[in-house]
Specification:
Layout (H helix, E strand, L loop, with lengths): L17 E4 L1 H9 L3 H10 L8 E5 L5 E7 L10
Parallel strand pairs: 1-3
Antiparallel strand pairs: 2-3
Length: 79
Amino acid sequence: MNSFFHLIDAPARGAVPIHVVTKAELGAWREGQPARVGRWLDASGFRAEGGAVALVPADDGGIETVLVGRRETAPDLWR
């Protein structure tokens, strides 16, 4: 299982988290999210293909989080 890396301990107010995931990591990431996030990703067709982007809406109409797909063979700069 992947442990997700965080660049900062506490985000600035109003910051939008960006998560870079591969197809293999997407399921584990989704497990820690509310069911509505999974439904949104299903409805939008996000499958974490390299270069794919998903903007997940917040309850207030803003952006809650951003997902970016990364190819399995792409170098992992954080390890």
